[in-house]
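Dear colleagues,

For the upcoming journal club I promised to circulate an example of a predicted protein-ligand complex. I picked one with NAP because it came up in last month's discussion. The inputs are reproduced below in full, followed by the predicted structure.
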Amino acid sequence: MEIAPIPTDAYKLGFIGAGKMAESIARGVVLSGVLPPSRIRTAAHSNQLRANAFESFGVQVFPRNEDVVEDSDVIIFSVKPQVVKDAVLQLKPLLSKKKLLVSVAAGVKLKDLQTRT
Ligand SMILES: NC(=O)c1ccc[n+]([C@@H]2O[C@H](COP(=O)([O-])OP(=O)(O)OC[C@H]3O[C@@H](n4cnc5c(N)ncnc54)[C@H](OP(=O)(O)O)[C@@H]3O)[C@@H](O)[C@H]2O)c1
């Protein structure tokens, strides 16, 4: 697999799945000074309260997962394990080699993401 460099000084971090885990990571990233909230984005699936939670500390919430992928360099899949496959397939056309994919879903390995993209 060919690897493209991620710009460490300007990369943007996106979350697919605006749940509790994503919020915890995003808050940690901001509080530790790794990234400002302006460089973090997500999309709320069906629950506006999740959008509110992210917007409350400055994270941009887009209408669609596709918008998150298009505007992110590093993409963390933070949906439930049984949703990962469908989410990856939905986004597959946008997942170029320039995007670094990460999964925090229990039991989903990097290999699983690679074979689906
Ligand atoms: N919580 C933890 O302590 C923990 C620890 C380690 C690993 N993890 C892993 O982290 C992942 C997320 O866990 P969580 O506790 O954060 O769960 P969660 O709070 O239920 O978050 C999952 C989010 O994904 C959204 N979602 C569902 N289908 C989607 C889709 N097709 N596209 C985009 N978003 C979608 C859900 O939105 P709706 O509710 O609106 O459907 C929900 O906001 C899991 O795979 C879990 O194994 C969690």
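Two points we might discuss: Residues 13-116 form a domain with the Rossmann fold fold (CATH 3.40.50.720). The pocket of NAP is lined by residues 16-22, 45-47, 50, 65, 78-81, 83, 87, 104-106 (CB under 6 Å).

See you all on Thursday,
B. R.
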